Amino acid sequence: MKIDTESSKFQRSDMKPKKKLVLRIYGFSPSVNFGDFRTFLENYGPIRFLKSAKGRESVTVQFEKYDHGLRLLNYKTLRFGNDNLTIHESDYKFEVSKRQVIKRIINEFDKHEVPLSFSGEAKMIRDTVELKPENVMKRLEFVARLNAFVRQFFDESLNIEVKAFGSTLTGFGLLDADLDLTFLFERNTPFQAVDVSHLKLKDDPLEVFKKKRIENMEWRCVSIALKAVFLGRLLKQYEEETDEISDVVCIEAARVPIITFKFNHISCDLSFTNILGMRKADLLKLTTEDHPELSNTLFFIRTWARCAGIFKSTERPVGCFSSYAFSILFFCYCQHSKVLGPLENNEPIQGIAEGTKLTYIGGYHGGIKDFVIGFFEFCLNVYKADQVLCPMTAQIIPIKEFQAPAGWYGQGGFRVSDVSNIQDPIETGHNITSSVTKENLERFLDRARDVVEALMNLDGEHGIAKEMFNVLRQRSSRVVSPALEKMQID
């Protein structure tokens, strides 16, 4: 094992010492033994933690002492066995686990001698664990750089854009929120079939497409699977040229092809013309952005669900609620309780609507505790009927009535069975969709029963959020790490 010291001449003299220095090391082969690598790194000093990324192509490491990490960073390259590794500084603070979220919230509760009002609790929780504006800006700056790179290969008539959406922009993301991206292009030009046999998107060197850029009709005549392969090649080229991203994987065999990768250890998903996804994000953002109380309540409900193990996680990668699905369930309840009205200035057609936000009526009738209890009681009852929760209106309709207009998702529209794997819409019958398993549904309903019981026994309107997290702590052997059993919210 040798160190390449050639680049170590260029010292980072401008770098000022700071509390933490997190390193990202790329270039591992699939057969690497990370135990041996950790032992090797300990020659530079004690390690606080070392974590391998998905795909085992990179690791993130932090030394106990800043100077030890800086010494390794200054080498910039490293040889371990047969692997030629590159070393970079990472500003990402690792995936935030449910245990970490609860611990942070507990620590904030402990700072207050008397219980807070619910509005105070919700704001405190949001301030503690939300994705900060400066981190959102870093993500958007990265997207701008990625756009500049990708546009080199397409004719201007396509007007292509890699656009961010989802929790990064809605304001409902936690510190480790994924970055959702979609690839958009000009579709208003009348379609005309053209021969694309000359386009060797899988094989031709990318320089070919820089010299002869892909035109509008050519791109529109290419299959979506081939589009995914080509964009995957572009992202891998971007990785080689910039070292900003890693672990690029093109999942072309999926029902809707998607490209996954990492940016500073942040999970990124790039989809194609995901108009529905963008509209869903707009529905959350536009409905809540002028109403802080509603926005903070939804943020709290989502954070509680994350900590209760309701959402997709490393431990449960499939069969769980998406955060959006849970959000529209909350919006559905808000309409039921007359806090929200239907879509503004728009009538849904067969479950699909063009409206961008729900009408705000306001006020938690009967008090905030009754409102929160009512949400979980609503969840316990709504799954008893064979119905669908529409993704664009947040309203419940009979499953047999849900069908999009022809042409919206191809010839003949679609039914719930066609879209169950992307959880739009949510079937509220006892089987629900194939995306949410019975086991995970029961876990959610079990947690809901706990909340209803705990809040009914709570005196007054203060300490609601605190009590709900106490319930999670008491069930921590099934929700989060058993170490949480040692934590107490007094």
From TrEMBL:
Where does the Poly(A) RNA polymerase mitochondrial-like central palm domain lie?
Answer: 121-286
Drop me one GO molecular function for this one.
poly(A) RNA polymerase activity
Pfam (any one) = MTPAP-like_central
An example GO biological process term is: RNA 3'-end processing
Q: Which InterPro entries match?
A: MTPAP-like_central (IPR054708), NT_sf (IPR043519), RBD_domain_sf (IPR035979)
Provide the protein name: Poly(A) RNA polymerase mitochondrial-like central palm domain-containing protein
Native organism: Bursaphelenchus okinawaensis
